[in-house]
Amino acid sequence: MITISFILIALALGTCISFFAINPDPMWLNAIYSPLLALGILFVGILILVSILLVYGVGYKKGQAPTYSEKGRLRLSGLTDFILRLFTVKLETNGFDKIPEDQAFLLVGNHRSNIDTFIVDKTLRKRKLIFVAKNSLFKKPLLPGIIGNAGYIELDRSDIGSGFAMMKNAQKYINEGVSVGIFPEGTRNKIEGEVGAFHNGAFIAAMKIKAPIVVCALHNTHGVNDNLLFKTHKIKLNCVKVYYYEDYKDMDANKLGDEIHALMVEDLKNK
Known about the structure:
By secondary structure, this protein is an alpha/beta fold. It is built from nine helices and seven strands.
């Protein structure tokens, strides 16, 4: 009932604000034309987003085992395009010709913003790809259905059992040809140019099945949270390095994590 009320309110506000912005009469509305139009677009965008999430989340059951769905991925890709357009993101990618064409892989990157997964998803649209997502995202309104139906792996970092389940599911996916993305920092880092301490469990999963590890660095995604709708946000995603089994077979997970951490930091310094 709350969701229906929210949609109706957003629709009414969006319609009214957009109407007055497009038709500035009386004349005093001329002075606030642009802000009114932007607000109208924002309300309508929120309405569309909520509607998409409601439709795409149909059929998801809380706690269901993660299973990759091509249909779920396609729906999530549609949402990705909508979000990036709404936030006026201009994306530059580099180095992705390095990634293996015929193998699934573990993808790791730094974490700055809620749109980080959307950036990576957009870049690797032609690949089967899911992400490990913290359990709090599965408690948000509307979101669990869309990421759950796509096959995202839920992880509670405070629960050792959840960590082992994540590694098992990641191994299963990669063996089945589905690449897995994870942010080893575990939470968003709000300091530009820095990378937080890693949780190295994901590296253990990749090492056990000798999977390639794709290292990425995201630049400027935190800035998307500022000046929504009023500026173009230039985001850069670099593929820094691809580790194959021969590259890391003599390392333990901690040593590999430290080396990857240093690679990310170095890339972020070279803007």
